[in-house]
Amino acid sequence: MTNSTSNSQNTLKQLLQLPVMVAALGYLVDMYDLFLFNIVRVPSLKELGFEGKQLFDEGAMLINTQMAGLLIGGVIWGVMGDKRGRLSVLFGSIIIYSLANIANGFVNTLPQYAVCRFIAGVGLAGELGAGVTLVTEILPRQIRGYGTTIVATLGLVGAIAAFFVADLFDWRVSYYVGGGMGLLLLILRVNIFESKIFVDAKNKHIARGNLLMLFTNKTRFFKYLMSILIGLPIWFVVGILITFSPEFAKAAGIAEPINAGKAVMITFTGQVFGDIASGFLSQYLQSRKKVILLFILLSLTFVLVYLLVPVSSSFSFYLICAFLGFCNGYWTLFITIAAELFGTNLRATVATTVPNFVRGATIPLLALFKFLEPDMGVMYAALVIGVCTSAIALIALWNIDETFTKEMDYVE
């Protein structure tokens, strides 16, 4: 056996070890549950008695409620991940959002729906950050980009699976399936182990999970803020352009009805390929920043196409959604950068709060969109926000360090 073959087999063995696969499967369930509401928004609200513009207004309220849960949960789980360990988050978060989604299948009123989405949001907030943190700490720096790519790919498969489940079953059953998958995943998590880097830091009795450390040091706060701003274009696309794709298609003059669930599925199919491409390209170029720069510019290009280029058919519209999804494929790469920028005692706090603050940015972005839309119209209101989020992300990316070769065994 040649050294090359032996090294390849060793790399594959490390990438397929149980903690990596369990983190990836956890993100699959996370993404299924997170985007299920985007897919069943219309049928579920119609069954509860809402029609017309209420589908947008009440849908926006429920999305904001879920995002508020993600913001709060991001802080809770991030701090817990650094204080008590990455595994405590992987167990606790999945229990909460699994039970919340099962309960969501029983709702009969809008307030009940909102409470379930909020609790589910709190639970969902912990999964990705803890998983990425664990993967970056247990894998060698030369291959950890491949590890986070596996997590991203399986996670986005979960979003695609949500479409097919919702297409085959009633929206209530779709929520039961998501909750059931989460509870089944707990069985696999019994046998996974904590990262050695975290255990060593814990044994040294170093201060861990102190959220204030991110705000009391100017350099650290600036680095943290830039980490968040890089991801804004992703959730502008997902939270506004794709979630409300039927409204945008109508404003564009497309006569054929656009299915929001289908748009979500197609977008995340594109994002699966985008995440794979960005992960491998990052490994090839040995750079996170160069790849993220490319994807932000591509995203802006297709946002302009989505909003400004006339299309007359649903096929063309869905094709643009697929390209938008591909351009969103730096999601896990940007979370990896956030994890790599900070020491072990703050890594889970950062890796968990950063994506959830980006998700939570949907709240002000959606509020700004609703404020601008009456005067500017749907298309131009979104255009202003899309250009601004891309510009902010590019400035933020310019102001952070390259992290590809950075070692993880250090503390703040």
UniProtKB/TrEMBL annotation:
The chain crosses the membrane at residues 20-40, 60-80, 87-106, 118-139, 146-169, 175-192, 221-244, 291-309, 315-342, 378-398. It is a multi-pass membrane protein. One of its GO terms (molecular function) is carboxylic acid transmembrane transporter activity. The keyword Transmembrane applies. PROSITE patterns: MFS. CDD domains: MFS_SV2_like. One of its GO terms (cellular component) is plasma membrane. InterPro entries: MFS, MFS_dom, MFS_trans_sf. Residues 19-404 form the Major facilitator superfamily (MFS) profile domain. Pfam families: MFS_1. This is MFS transporter. It comes from Emticicia agri.
